[in-house]
Amino acid sequence: MKKLLLFFTTAFSIVCFAQKRSPANKAVFLQDISWTTAQQYLTPDAVIVIPLGAEAKEHGPHLPLSTDFLQANGFAKEIALQRNVIITPTVSYGFYPAFLKYPGSTSTNFKTATDIVVQIVRSLAGYGPRRFYIINIGVSTTPTLEIAAKILSEEGILLYYSRYDRPAFDNAEAPFRTKEYSGHADELETSNILYLRPDLVVMKKAVNDSSMKDKRGNMSPVAIEGGNLNTSGINGYAALGTKEKGKKNMAAFAKELIKEIDSVTNCALPIAKDRTAEYTAFEGSYTDGGGKKLVITQKNNTLYFVWDGRDARSFFHLYKDAADYFSSMAMNILFVRNDKGSSTSSEVEKAWCQYRGESFWVTKER
Fold it and tell me: What is the mean pLDDT of residues 281-294?
C-alpha cells in the first residue's frame, strides 16, 4: 500500500510540474516528455536550446548562488513562448574559477566544462539534430564553448552560443544600466533576479562596489597573495537594481537570443571533416601484457573498437578529442607513435587505454 501511495504521489508530482509550463509555449521541454515522444521531436530539422548557468556561484551578499541558473531558466521560458525549439535541462555546472574563494561557489576545470557540453550535444545529435544553441550566462564559460564548437563542427554539428561582449547584447542592456561600470552581481543581474525571484533577494545587503574596476584575475573576500580583494563579491552598482529594470532587460536580452536562434535555424551546417585516411594509421590489432586484444576498425569516417571480445560497435564509437586521443562512453585511447625513437617513422606503435577506470598499455601487432 505504501509503495502504491508513493507511486501515485510521484506521478502526481510529475504531472503538476509539467502543468507549470505555460500553455502558450511553442517549445518542448525535453525533461517533460517520454523517450517515445522525444523520438518524434529529435529530428535532423530540430533546433536544440541548452540553458547554461551556474546554480552554485557567488553573486554578492544579496543574491542567491543560483543567480545564473535562474537567469538561464528565465530566458528559456521566454524563448519557449516564441519559438518551436527543444529546450534541454539547464546545465548548472561549468568553468567559474574566479569565484572559488567565496564559500558555496563551484567550478569544474576547463576541460571538464568543455567535455560536459560536447558530450551532451553528441548524445542528442545521435538521434538526429545537428543544430544547437546555448544560452550562456557567464563570461569564463565562453572559451570552453569556443573549443566545444570547434570539436563539434568537425563532426558536422553546429553549436552556437550567446556571449555578453557581442555588440547586440551590450546594446540591448545599455538602456537599463544606470552606471557604465558593471560586470557581476551588479545593477542588471540584481534587477533580473528582483523580477524573476524577488523572494531570494535581500536588497538591504546590496552595495555598490567598483573595487574591481580595471583589474583582472581571481577575486577574494579576504586579502590573499595574487588575488584581488573584493569583500562584497559584487562588480558594479547592485543597489540601483529594480524589478522594472529587470523585466525590461530580460525582454531585450531574450530578443537578441531569439535572433541568434533564428540564425542557427537557417544557416548552413558545417561539413564533417573526412578523416578516412587519417584513421587508417590506427586500424589494426593491439595486445596487452596478458594477451587481451584491442581491435580498431573504421567505417563511414568513424573509428570503432572491440576490447577483449566485447563488441559494442553498434552502441559506442570513438570520438577524436585531440591529436591521437579518442574517447567513447567506455573507452579512452591515446595512440603513441615513434615508440622506437625513429625520426622518420610516424607509425602508431602502441596505445594507452582506459576502460571503465582500468588503465593499461597495448602494443600494435605487425
Answer: 97
Supply angle C-alpha 333, 142, 73, rounded to 5. 105
Residues 6+ apart with CB under 8 A from 323: none
pLDDT value, residue 179: 85
Q: What are 7's three cell numbers?
A: 507511486
Judged against a pLDDT cut of 80, whether residue 7 lies above it is answered with no
- Spell out the domain ranges in the chain: 14-266, 276-364
Does the pLDDT value for residue 14 go beyond 50? no
14-266 with 276-364: one CATH topology? Answer: no
Contacts of 171 (CB under 8 A, 6+ apart): none
pLDDT reading at 47 higher than 60: yes
Separation CA 189–CA 294 (nearest Å): 52
pTM, to two decimals: 0.90
User: DSSP string spanning 262-296?
Assistant: HHHHHSPPPPPP--HHHHGGG-EEEE-TTS-EEEE
Measured distance CA(307)–CA(164) in Å, rounded? 45
> What residue type is assigned to position 26 of the chain?
K
Instruction: Sheet with 47-53: list strands edge to edge.
Output: 28-29, 86-87, 47-53, 131-137, 158-161
Q: Which residue has the cell 543544430?
A: 131
Q: In this predicted structure, what is the pLDDT of residue 273? A: 96
Residue 267, C-alpha cell as written in the block: 544557416
Three-class DSSP category at 323: coil
Assess contact for 42 and 178: CB atoms under 8 A.
no
CATH superfamily of 14-266: Creatininase (3.40.50.10310)
Name the grid cell of 151. 570539436
Domain 276-364 has CATH 1.10.3470: no
pLDDT in tens, 60-111: 999 999 999 999 999 999 999 999 999 999 999 999 999 999 999 999 999 9
The rounded percent of the chain whose pLDDT value lies above 90 is 85
